[in-house]
Amino acid sequence: MDRKPLLLLINPNAGRADIRAGLLAVCDTLSRGGYDVIVRPTTRAGEIEDILQEWHGRTDTVVACGGDGTLNETVNGLMRLSPRPVLGYIPGGTVNDFASSLGIPKSPLEAAKAIVSGTPTGCDVGRFGSRYFSYIAAFGAFTEVAYQTPQGPKSVLGRTAYILEGIKRLPTLRSYHLKIETTDVCIEDDYIFGMISNSTSVGGFKLNDRHHVSLRDGLLELVLVKNPDNILALNDIINSIATQNFSSDYVHFLRTSRVSVSSPDVISWTLDGEFGGAPQSITVEALREAIQVII
After folding, report:
1. At what angle do helices 47-55 and 68-79 cross, to 10 degrees?
2. Fold of 4-118
3. Angle between helical axes of 23-32 and 108-117 (0-180°, round to 10)
4. CATH class of 132-289
5. Structure pTM?
6. What are the pLDDT digits (tens) for 4-38?
7. What is the distance between the alpha carbons of residues 185 and 175, in angstroms, rounded to a whole number?
8. DSSP labels for 82-135?
9. Which of 158, 174, 176, 243 has a CA that sits 20 to 30 A from residue 28's CA?
């Protein structure tokens, strides 16, 4: 049997300890599945893109093993290659929204088995200016929690660490004046939160089926939350988001292939849970089935 080279990118600092404990079993499973496994641990931010450039043309299969940040770096690296290797994902972070959306097992060993038996499937990628994201670009209320929560509490407490960090930031919430232009509408208002996603899971919470979210339709889902001017409005927002009917006058839900966001304010964005910069204007678009993911 011809053995195929597989580049396994591992973030040893990902949120869950079982990713390190189960590494040997993961490698054994991939090897028994017919792959020659080349293991490359990462030692610094941005290194994955350099590794992918180094290995371009030497393997058709890349597996990212780590959290959403590891996956984001891998997707950014793959998008700069042509032809692109297929992507496998072994989730090892705290939340792992991308894996949840695709039904990838949370167990590293089971995820490795799924790679061996799975099929490459087209998956959309979001383009954020010159950068890319696998499942979400967001700004405003609590979004900085994802990349400012210390790794220690994330490893021990999991999703609870994000919630605790978010509660600490309640008194500092602010609104941003934005102009939003999609292929169909143009709106302008003050917002405390905005989310552009290609995912059925955000922050570990599943979106329900009524919105018919697909990861390969060339469309992004946009949720905007206006600044509440009283406690009743805030309660209305909470109910609207909790029930996911988005019927509140303070919550806008749109679906589009392309959106431009501009503001007189400097806005910090998060891309897949990592800091994504602070542009005053940005264009975000869906690149339909830009990568092949093994599922």
Report:
1. 40
2. Rossmann fold (3.40.50)
3. 10
4. mainly beta
5. 0.86
6. 999 999 988 765 556 677 899 999 999 999 999 99
7. 21
8. SSPPEEEEEE-SSS-HHHHHHT--SSHHHHHHHHHH--EEEEEEEEETTEEESS
9. 158
